[in-house]
Specification:
Layout lengths: L15 E18 L5 E20 L5 E7 L12 H13 L6 E7 L9 H16 L6 H11 L3 H6 L2 E6 L3 E4 L6 E7 L6 H9 L13 H7 L2 H6 L2 E2 L2 H7 L2 H10 L4 E6 L6 E5 L2 H11 L7 E7 L5 E2 L2
Parallel strand pairs: 1-8, 3-4
Antiparallel strand pairs: 1-2, 1-12, 2-4, 2-5, 5-6, 7-10, 7-11, 9-10
The structure holds cytidine-5'-monophosphate.
Length: 312
């Protein structure tokens, strides 16, 4: 018998499979919009062990299409407008030729519109998978450049680990970190639009880009996880809470649980992220959070996870 996992035995031998991580922002500082319409950011991304998988197989006559299963699959458009398809089209335009085609199949674990950059992760996965499927002459730098055209969080999904992001969030510097970061994540029933949260944020009239929380980078470098927990910060949190009052109760409840070192809204929300002292605490915290009426489901994840990776 094959040692493959259930469901893999009939896998297409020509298929390329990749895995891409969700992210949390340990700190997200937001300044005014630039001339490109994007806000200037100072952020620390961390990739989490919550992965979408994407499989690409060759398709005839330049067809690029998408099927989706898993978490929130019905929320992902399959009419060609999804970022994973747009990523494949962009890659083909720049590095391939029109007859190249791919059937993409996405197995979602990262919730949609959750502040975890799931759509960006899928785009990063599509760039990597199609680049291998079509045997294109790309390297990490060229994929990174395409990634930043596709969205502010896509380059980080390729890179993974823990990284400082500046500019729109696309200028990345990998950070030296120590320690394992155990998270409990509380997912909400209904997603939040990143664009809508940023638009609402603008009403506060921020004129300067604030610095990162003092001591955060040092705490990461020395692996002082409790200090990292105390320095979690998100400038979009107040705005998102004004749009979803129930998230405040989720954050407060989680922050008060044993073993929680810090609580923060992930990105533009609505996922609430709780940094925990160890794996056991994270599990207990996730179980408690999952019982809240404002929480659809809660899961544990570990950082820092690798970026987009080939599985076969
Ligand atoms: O780049 P992405 O498509 O993921 O961003 C979604 C939306 O979030 C953008 O259309 C923009 O409104 C907002 N955004 C922003 N500034 C950033 C990143 C995102 O205003 N640095």
């Amino acid at each position: 018998m094959s040692s493959h996992a259930a469901g893999q035995d009939d896998a297409d031998p020509g298929a390329v499979r990749v895995r891409v991580p969700a992210k949390v922002n340990l700190a997200l500082r937001v300044g005014p919009r630039g001339a490109d319409g994007y806000h200037r950011l100072r952020t620390v991304f961390q990739a989490l062990s919550l992965f979408d998988e994407l499989e690409a197989v060759e398709a005839p006559d330049g067809v690029i299409d998408l099927t989706v299963t898993g978490e929130g699959a019905d929320l992902v458009p399959t009419d060609g407008t999804d970022l994973a398809v747009r990523a494949a089209v962009l890659l083909r335009e720049r590095y391939g030729s029109p007859e190249l085609g791919a059937h993409l199949h996405l197995v979602k674990s990262i919730p949609v519109a959750a502040g975890l950059a799931g759509g960006s992760a899928d785009a990063a996965g599509s760039l990597l998978a199609c680049s291998v499927l079509w045997d294109l002459d790309t390297d990490p730098a060229s994929l990174g450049a395409l990634a930043s055209e596709l969205g502010a969080d896509v380059p980080f999904a390729l890179l993974g680990g823990t990284a400082l992001g500046t500019g729109r969030g696309t200028q990345l510097m990998p950070l030296l970190t120590r320690g394992r970061y155990h998270w409990a994540l509380a997912f909400a029933d209904v997603g939040l639009s990143t664009a809508a949260v940023f638009a609402q944020f603008d009403r506060a009239g921020v004129v300067e880009l604030p610095p990162l929380p003092e001591g955060l980078l040092q705490a990461l470098a020395s692996g002082d996880v409790p200090q990292v927990g105390r320095r979690l910060a998100n400038d979009l949190q107040r705005t998102a809470l004004s749009m979803r009052a129930e998230l405040l109760a989720t954050l407060r409840f989680g922050a008060g649980l044993d073993g929680v070192l810090g609580a923060v809204l992930s990105g533009s929300g609505p996922t609430c992220a709780f940094l925990c002292a160890d794996a056991r605490a994270a599990k207990v915290v996730a179980d408690r959070l999952g019982q809240l009426p404002s929480v659809r489901a809660a899961e544990v994840a570990v950082g820092a996870a690798p970026g987009a990776q080939l599985l076969s």
